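Q: How do we represent a protein-ligand complex in a form that can be generated token by token?
A: Start from the inputs.
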Amino acid sequence: MSKAETHHFQAEIQQLLDIVIHSLYTDKEIFVRELISNAADACEKLRFNQSSGKPVFQSEVAPVIQVTTDDKAGTITITDTGLGMTHGELVENLGTIAHSGTKAFLKQLAGDKKPDVGLIGQFGVGFYSAFMVAKKVTVLSRSFLPGESGWQWTSEGMGGYELVPAGDLPRGTRITLELKDDAKHFAAESTVEHIIQRYSSFVPFPIELNGKRLNTVQAIWARNKHEIKEEEYEEFYTFIGHDHDKPLFRLHFSADAPLAIQALLFVPPRNFETLGMGRIDSEVNLYCRKVLIQAKAKGLFPDWLRFLKGVVDSEDLPLNISRETMQDTSLMQKLNKVLTGRFLKFLEEQSEKSAEAYEKFYSEYQRFLKEGVVTDFTHQEALGKLLRYESSLLDPGKLTSLADYVKRMSSEQKEIYCLLAPNRAAAEASPYYEVFRERKFEVLFLYDPWDEFVMEHLRTFDGKTLRLAEKADLDLSAKKEGALSDDAARDLAKWLKETLGDKVGEVRVSRRLVDSPAVVVDADKAMTANMRRLMKAMKQDGSELPGAKQDFEINPAHPVISRLDRMRSQDAPLAVSVAEQILDNARVAAGLLEDPRAMLNRLNQLLEKVLTKD
Ligand code: FE6
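Then emit the structure tokens for the protein with FE6 bound:
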């Protein structure tokens, strides 16, 4: 040991080591990721030197990363056949090159409320993370440069390091960690296997753990999509999605500006939130050059795209952001904007390519798109194009986009009409539908109670107002034969208001009813029957909502109404009963009758009268 050189660590590096050694950081396992990442970089650089024709020591030795554990000795060793380091580099690496990263990292640690040692790799000083778990680190390295020989570097973290010539070593670097007592579990094969699977599955060089090959799935997102086989995509999805079924959609894309991004995204075959699993978390992982930076990255996509699975890889991730603040950074916002815009464009393309495939997606994920319309103003317009509805002009089960609806609109029609109903039969039987059927205006049938909020937030599409059928200001084209005269109808309306009193708001003569004697219409312009039902359901105590009064519209052409008018003078008490019943019937049609039992007495009395006639 006569040739042993002892070196002191530079002040900053000693400071960094002190922090790392005494850190209470919980994810100590990341040291494995950092050492493997360094090894992979060394292999990458070796390959580069080889391909540019430089002479390389042991050129025939392929790049590989070998990890071995020895739980008896309490050690873990990471060996690579990469570039290796010269004596100068072993000193330099811990000196000047690492210096700037160390300074930046120390600054970050000092400034953060919750210092995140896990970012160490992003500052280029990941090697030091070894001292979180090791009481002693031994590095054996031999550079690829012909004429160099091996060196052994050892340190216990405090008080410097020792360099000794190691003679005839194979090319590359071997790092052995003698684990601290509280870190001995990192000498267990199964522990290390999990860590490597988690962080280093896509490292592009073979990783062997105690002789067993681990990473067999490639980071195909970084490859040219034209060179990737369908089976490779399938295998990849199975691996990252933990799902043996095929995804509904796949989007593989890369961009250079405004950010360098490679992304491979999948829409899983099922919506897990409808399967009663509660709210799901985004499963898109963020990588920087194939190494995991953040699993289930928050802020990468808007909340309403939380059903996506896949990977996003960006080289542009800066060094000075911590995990906690990652989601607030403008970089994250930029990534989010690019990714969301691209995915929405993709969905539109898919809907044009195959309506069938798109509708399958839509039936699983429409709630997410609707959530987007309501919560995310930035993408509202693009999301509007993705909505699909049944329509009065299409066969049951067929769906239309708003764009196609607009194309079919006649010049006479100025607005887009929507009818909220529980199902098609209810929509077609709705009194609010009558005027549209009569005038041959297409109506979209909305069966999802959320749709009312969707329409409310969207407001317009392609410059046309989205109008709920019950709020539409439309008249029948012609007056019906046998209808009450305008004066008689107005008179009856007046009598009805006097008779029904506080049970209704206004009573009006309707110009939009064909088959129904009457309808109720919410007096509040902004309120609909659907919304009343939703709000009532949300109120636990079942109490009335304020201003729950309904206007009442009568159809002057309906026999029930014209005969009611006659009955007023013939049998006033019967006319009152019938008027009350017509109102309750209209409430039933609107789904707003609170307690149907109350009307049964009256209905039975009316039936009795009908049956005793003559
Ligand atoms: C990190 C200091 C040991 C290469 N291969 C591997 N690691 C490398 C390099 N590092 N830097 C270059 C590192 C240090 C010591 C390793 Br001591 F910064 N595997 Cl070529």
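The chain is about 40% helix and 20% strand. The pocket of FE6 is lined by residues 38-39, 42, 80, 82-85, 90, 93-94, 98, 127, 139, 153, 173 (CB under 6 Å).
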